[in-house]
Amino acid sequence: MRAVTLFAPANLSCVEAEVPKIKDSNEVLIKVKACGVCGSDIPRVMIKGAHKMPIIIGHEFSGEIVETGESVSSFKVLDQVTAMPLIPCGKCEFCQIGKYNLCDDYLYYGSRIPGAMAQYIVVKESNLLKLPKNVDYESAAMTDPVSVALHAIGKANINAGQSAIVFGLGAIGLIAIQWLKILGCSEVIAIDIFQEKLDLAEKLGVDLTINAKNNNVIEAIMDYTHNKGADIVIELAGNKITQLQAIQSASKMGRVIYCGISYDDLLLPSKEVNKILRGELFVIGSWNSSIAPLPVNEWKTSLDFMDKGKIKVKPLISHRVKLEDCKEVFEMMYYKKEIFNKVLFIPDL
After folding, report:
1. How many helices (H) and strands (E) does the chain have?
2. How far apart are CA 68 and CA 22, in angstroms?
3. CA 175 to chain centre
4. In the CATH hierarchy, which top-level class contains the domain 156-285?
5. What is the pLDDT of residues 171-195, one digit of tens each?
6. CA gap 160, 88 in Å, rounded
7. Which CATH architecture group holds 2-145+290-345?
8. In this predicted model, what pLDDT tens digit does every residue of 315-333 receive, in sequence order?
9. In the beta sheet, which residues pair with residue 61?
10. Where do the domains of the chain lie?
11. How many angstroms separate the CA atoms of 225 and 293, rounded?
12. Distance between CA atoms of residues 338 and 15, nearest Å
């Protein structure tokens, strides 16, 4: 099969590899139909490398089951599926309370074990979810970012009528603005530096967009909110500038959710510390997503809302590319040669 393989940082190519074999009776073999590029994939490929190399990358995917292990009972050949990429240990204290996203000793498709940016992947039955009728392969490959956005917003404890801000309009940001509206926010503000992404956010229902290149972001927010700030702030850019602006733009007793992966140190000035103290802000981290049944299975919920047309992901797809174009595509994203949003590798191209 053809497989996008990372040999070392910035050393990526599509190579011929053996079709993976089912080794455990609880596994299935999937023919991959679509695999998305996560924001974390870009620095992993271009700078940091993976935990193990060489490795087939990719963890946001969908496909069709072509073979099942002998103990697989809930899935069959020809089932259309997606999969949660994290395999929890099931033993640590966090797994014991269902916080699998906080597992101390997890495996992960595409960074610790072979991923899905290939024609085939072997996946454990416990990680699988069947696709609803109205969710196609491309949409299903975006269940991960839909779930990550839902997990972050779940930290906000939204009450109907509250206001919210989203910093950073990558795929997760553009999905987050939809969740915020669905869950009852009356005013949602979206902030980015690319006008094309802000225009898309308007089409998806935000009430105000602010281009951070051309505007004083905090002044614009305070003008719009009558100097109150927003009840909920979701930071998804992972940039030290927006990380500070998230605090600056929150209302008293506001909730600031950090979800964007940070690759730089953040100095927290006394002004922002004082705002956290005097405004009694809630500053909360959000990591990954969960398939635990309570309070909701975020993956099943995400698929359900996509199935009903309430969460729209197709407008977020900016590129559909071949496996063989992997090197050029990752260089394009890393060096920002083009404006992109969700990039999908389609093995059948």
Report:
1. 11, 18
2. 8
3. 9
4. alpha beta
5. 999 999 999 999 999 999 999 999 9
6. 34
7. Alpha-Beta Complex (3.90)
8. 999 999 999 999 999 999 9
9. 35
10. 2-145+290-345, 156-285
11. 37
12. 26
